[in-house]
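A.,

Following up on our hallway conversation. Structure tokens first:
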């Protein structure tokens, strides 16, 4: 099947809330210190099942503030439309163009080595771009628990990303509450996820905690300000954004993709709405990293039409 959890990962697990060790009891992880349980969920797969452990914190509704309720509503909306959206959009051209554009970034700009934690890593697409020999351990974590569901219904995705056919270390959790002990990873990778977090401050603190000293945090995000074409978060960039969007959709998937995107936008289909909670300003992102003792060692900007995306390689210092 497509999901696994290596013994080496299990050794590094802790309670995502209180960070104390976990026990396995009746096929679920339990924390006796704060009385929390982390069971597994069955994910449908070729008529069989994949088991995914759920380390998300499930607060009762009456314990959630308005911000958290809003975040959860956006996440659920995204998750509900996810499977339908991705089986319908299983387009080889789109995926292979995506692979080509990212290959350049990972091969030329960043060298990922060691034990890797991919936060918001979904189906573990990053594996396609890293050398097996350089990365003895890889795990993807994502609150989207059903990302691996019925993989065989997405043959073009698997054709463009053949490494997805290999079982992937994966568990469901949120970036703000990572279930790993401190000083575990050499690399933490956060690609296009900063705008989805409910509490990015806590998420960066958690990334710092689980990284070894001198470990590398790689972040990419759409930003305004800095060298981004988008100077401010307001309407004067609307036209420029539209042009970028149209050029990107055309370049990556041709006319078919462009027209589909336009129709979906016009219909405002459920699940197609943005799932972004934050819109990052370049200066704020840099400030957040500095405040949390990450030294920036490399900055890379994507080119038109994606020249609003910045990639940062940063090092955990003490
Ligand atoms: Zn606990």
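Then the amino acids I'd put at each of the 318 positions:
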């Amino acid at each position: 099947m497509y999901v696994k959890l290596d013994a080496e990962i299990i050794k590094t697990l802790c309670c995502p809330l209180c960070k104390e060790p976990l026990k396995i009891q009746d096929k679920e992880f339990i924390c006796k210190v704060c009385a929390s349980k982390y069971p597994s969920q069955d994910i449908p797969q070729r008529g069989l099942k994949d088991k995914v452990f759920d380390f998300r914190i499930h607060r009762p509704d009456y314990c959630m503030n308005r911000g958290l309720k809003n975040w959860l509503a956006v996440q659920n909306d995204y998750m509900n439309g996810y499977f339908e959206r991705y089986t319908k959009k299983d387009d080889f051209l789109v995926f292979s163009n995506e692979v080509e554009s990212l290959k350049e970034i990972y091969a030329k700009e960043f060298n990922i080595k060691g034990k890797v934690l991919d936060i918001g890593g979904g189906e573990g697409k990053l594996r396609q771009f890293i050398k097996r020999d350089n990365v003895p351990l890889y795990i993807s974590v994502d609150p989207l628990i059903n990302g691996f569901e019925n993989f065989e219904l997405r043959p073009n995705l698997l054709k463009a990303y053949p490494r997805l056919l290999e079982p992937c270390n994966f568990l469901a959790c949120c970036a703000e509450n990572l279930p790993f002990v401190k000083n575990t990873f050499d690399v933490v990778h956060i690609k296009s996820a900063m705008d989805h977090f409910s509490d990015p401050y806590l998420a960066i603190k958690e990334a710092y905690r689980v990284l070894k000293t001198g470990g590398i945090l790689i972040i990419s995000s759409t930003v305004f300000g800095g060298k981004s074409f988008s100077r401010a978060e307001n309407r004067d960039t609307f036209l420029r954004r539209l042009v970028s969007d149209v050029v990107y959709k055309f370049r990556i998937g041709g006319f078919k993709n462009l027209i589909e995107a336009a129709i979906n936008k016009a219909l405002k289909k459920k699940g197609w709405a943005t799932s972004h909670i934050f819109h990052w300003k370049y200066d704020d992102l840099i400030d957040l990293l500095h405040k949390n003792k990450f030294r920036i060692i490399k900055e890379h900007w994507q080119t038109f039409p994606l020249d609003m995306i910045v990639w940062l390689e940063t090092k955990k210092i003490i």
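The pocket of zinc ion is lined by residues 15, 17-18, 20, 31, 33-34, 36 (CB under 6 Å). Curious whether your intuition agrees with the design.

B.
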